[in-house]
Design brief:
five-stranded mixed β-sheet, 498 residues, single chain, 16% strand, 15 helices, 13 strands
């Protein structure tokens, strides 16, 4: 009997030890699994490092590249395109003006009523229309006849479209495609993007083609301004606040323009501008510097994009790309461990994770991160994700967004440094901060990534304070503009009305 008891006890002890060994083994494997995932996130954080010292290096590089781009064509990755806009609206404009905005598969027709009262708001109406697919690949005449007809219908809704009165003959045209500007109201199309392919249009004057269509449709209107979306945003900002010196687009793509002294634009020496200033379109999405914190995910994204080795800055800070960087990191975590279960084929699909969904995960404040779980299930078909894994995903979103916002802030300070608005006296100024009297400086900003993403805005403002110091940063005001890319064209038409 005693032997039986001893035997049972030994068996139980062996089984207990075996069970304990299994449990310990599982715990060890689990720790290893989570450690691998944690290492992926830690390496991402290190690769995306944007400490203030590095940001100041980016600021300096941006200012130097701006100088080089102003000195000669092709002298910098920054194109620093001349816009010939030397007269920004100031609120004294009066009358009714129209604008067209062609930026992709949709376009807008706008009417703005200005009352000539500075600092007051103005009435405006907007109508959005899709462009038929066949028109995007037809002829220039078909495209601009369609646009002119839409404008004529828009005007007719006022009541009397057959007789356009003298005070509403001026038209602004926002054309968001690569153009070599020849004057404030003319520019040559360099190439089509965004699904357009109208061969007979390339190399022709965009404004002239529109003007001809207006004449064919019996509209007595003049194209007074041809601009891109950043210039339109600057015009709206300056209309409301004369201290506005720059405009930034931070949305699906990104770009910047600013108010520059003509004598600083070496590549256009001899050009006389009434105000002594000109708006310069930087095309800053193409900015590059060795100081930018680039990771293996950025390198792979660039290599697999339709435009490798191009738009490097844009690929690190704009809404088109942030969601896909996050997707690539989640894929790496899935390859390193089974925390997400079997690897979903959807994780290998480029751009399936759009940035608005990434921001929704990032800003999920629920205790169990249920929005994170829903999005990962809906987009990648990954169900039953552990809470710990969801927290890692939120951390990845945070790292990628924080880097983007802080780099955008460094770009803004680079512009301010170039024009002596960063408290240092400019890139060639020798004065110390203590000798400077900081002027109020306004930067107009448009784009959903900035206006709709609260954490992005917070990180950008935080970086501005760090780079400039709070005493200087308090004089820099960031103002969101609405529909500046369209309304701004109408305001510029008013500024340049004959």
């Amino acid at each position: 009997m005693g032997r039986v008891v001893v035997g049972v006890a030994v068996t139980v002890a062996v089984a207990t030890c075996a069970l304990a060994a299994v449990v310990v083994g599982r715990r060890v494997r689990s720790r290893r699994k989570w450690k691998k995932v944690a290492n992926v996130v830690r390496e991402l954080e290190e690769g995306c490092d944007t400490r203030v010292g590095r940001l100041r290096q980016v600021v300096d590089a941006m200012a130097v590249e701006m100088h080089a781009g102003l000195a000669s064509e092709g002298g910098s990755k920054l194109k620093m395109l001349l816009t010939f806009v030397d007269n920004l609206p100031n609120g004294t404009e009066r009358g009714t003006y129209y604008a067209l905005h062609l930026g992709g598969t949709n376009f807008r027709v706008l009417r703005v009523q200005l009352n000539g009262q500075p600092s007051s708001d103005f009435e405006h109406e907007v109508e959005r229309q899709p462009i038929p697919q066949h028109v995007m690949t037809s002829t220039s005449e078909d495209l601009f006849d369609f646009i002119a007809s839409s404008l004529k219908e828009f005007i007719a809704k006022e009541g009397d479209g057959s007789n356009i009165s003298q005070d509403r003959r001026e038209l602004g045209f926002t054309f968001s495609f690569p153009v070599k500007q020849m004057s404030v109201s003319s520019g040559i199309l360099i190439k089509w993007t965004k699904g357009f392919s109208i061969v007979d249009m390339v190399g022709r004057d965009v404004a002239a083609c529109l003007q001809e269509a207006l004449t064919r449709k019996g509209l007595d209107m003049r194209v007074a301004a041809l601009v891109n979306d950043t210039v339109g945003t600057l015009a709206v900002g300056h209309y409301h606040d004369p201290d506005t010196v720059a405009a930034i687009i931070i949305g699906t793509g990104t770009n910047a323009c600013y108010w520059e002294r003509v004598d600083a634009i070496i590549k256009c020496q001899g050009l006389l501008m009434t105000s002594g200033r000109m708006v310069v379109n930087m095309e800053w999405g193409n900015f590059w510097s060795s100081h930018l914190p680039r990771t293996s995910y950025d390198i792979d994204l660039d290599a697999e994009s339709p435009n490798p080795n191009d738009q490097g800055f844009e690929k690190m800070i704009s809404g088109m790309y942030l969601g896909d960087i996050v997707r690539r990191v989640i894929l790496k975590m899935s390859l390193e461990s089974d925390m997400f279960g079997p690897i979903s084929p959807k994780l290998s699909m480029p751009f399936i994770m759009r940035t608005p969904l990434m921001s929704a995960m990032h800003e999920d404040n629920s205790p169990d991160l249920r929005e994170v779980a829903r999005i990962l299930n809906d987009i990648f078909e990954i169900p039953d994700i552990p809470l710990k894994a969801r927290k890692f995903v939120v951390k990845v979103c945070d790292v990628v967004t924080r880097r983007a916002a802080r780099l955008a802030a460094a770009g803004i300070v680079g512009i301010l440094k170039k024009i002596g608005r960063d408290g240092s006296g400019g890139i060639t100024g020798g004065r110390s901060r203590s000798d400077m009297k900081m002027r109020r400086t306004v930067v107009a900003i448009e784009g959903g990534l900035y206006s709709k993403y609260a954490l992005f805005r917070e990180y950008l403002r935080e970086a501005l304070n760090e780079i400039l110091g709070e005493d200087i940063a308090k004089h820099v005001i960031l103002k969101v503009t609405e529909d500046g890319s369209g309304i701004g064209a109408a305001l510029l038409a008013a500024s340049y009305s004959s």
